């Protein structure tokens, strides 16, 4: 790599990491201040699920679309549009008068985040071409996921304690606007060497299908046989089936289904799905449970999130030095194993009314998350053709955030189950343990997928 190429790559790494940090700060902002936000907006228990999950809906429904558009029409262009949209939608969240407006703004924030994550990782895949360079860049990018999750709840809780939860969104909107104005000048444009086409049927069927499925899953906590759950679930499943058929026959598909014949791509996608289910889902709900069941303050809950995400940040960042020495499948297996061990170590914390009981488990599971993030970022760009790196990022992150949405919904359902006789609504200590057990089982399933691929490689 020449000096000019190295300078261009370093600028891309800085801008993409800064934008990724903003996305994750925004993603986790409501976690520690959910009770205050819900009270201010008049949101009930079911609506509170949407206060958290709305951004995941926007992310999951548009990540693959954003990656495909970036490859075809310019990754820098899609990245910049994402930053501009993040600034506008975050400002809207700051002034939202009611829960409906806030949820709509969070969905748009998810769309903006999808453009930033998919195109950003695609920009890094284009800027860094060697295995060592990509391991360094993707590990640094993955560390921003942990840093954002660590700082977001603390920042929102701190600002809420001295003023209002809305201040966080005002500041974040300003930062996104500044980065949109200045950051785009530091990036070099890149796109695939093919005729650009918009896969309109694919965009419509995938985006709408995923949105309907996630709506159904979120509504499922109030009953799975209700029309409000069954109708969007069935329609969403049908649209996703149509998407597969469209992509299989399309001349320029948004997702090349032939990639699923590659074992490494399958493992990367399934690993991302189970990372969302096992790592992101339960950990997103835990701060709220700590507030409701133990009486931890908003800042205290943010501190717990910081312990988990801080461990994730440190481990991901270190993998830029060790990443090429450890096979990504082994990283995935170890990451899932640590996640399961960490959850099991926290069992009984709510019943004991002790937040201290969570610290060892948070450190262990956070370290596991760091390994998962670094391995998945590396696999996302290494398992697809060089001219489709943004599409690979979009597919990987789509699986991750679909898993996260499912994991959050399943965790809230588990937390509100096993209520004492005569109690309705809310959460229970036994439900908190059910969340941890669910996460551990899902993590072990993810470990099994990673180990199966490693064994397959060993025998071929």
UniProtKB/TrEMBL annotation:
Domain Major facilitator superfamily (MFS) profile: start-end pairs: 12-457
GO MF annotations, alphabetized: transmembrane transporter activity
Xref: InterPro entries: MFS, MFS_dom, MFS_trans_sf
Topology relative to the membrane: Multi-pass membrane protein
UniProt GO cellular component terms: plasma membrane
Entry-linked SUPFAM superfamilies: MFS general substrate transporter
Alphabetical UniProt keywords: Membrane, Transmembrane, Transmembrane helix
Location(s), subcellular: Cell membrane
Annotated Pfam families: MFS_1
Source organism, top-level taxon: Bacteria
Main location: membrane
Residue stretches spanning the membrane: 12-29, 49-66, 78-97, 103-128, 140-161, 167-188, 200-219, 225-246, 267-286, 292-311, 332-350, 362-381, 401-422, 434-452
Name of this chain's protein: MFS transporter
Organism field: Phytohabitans flavus
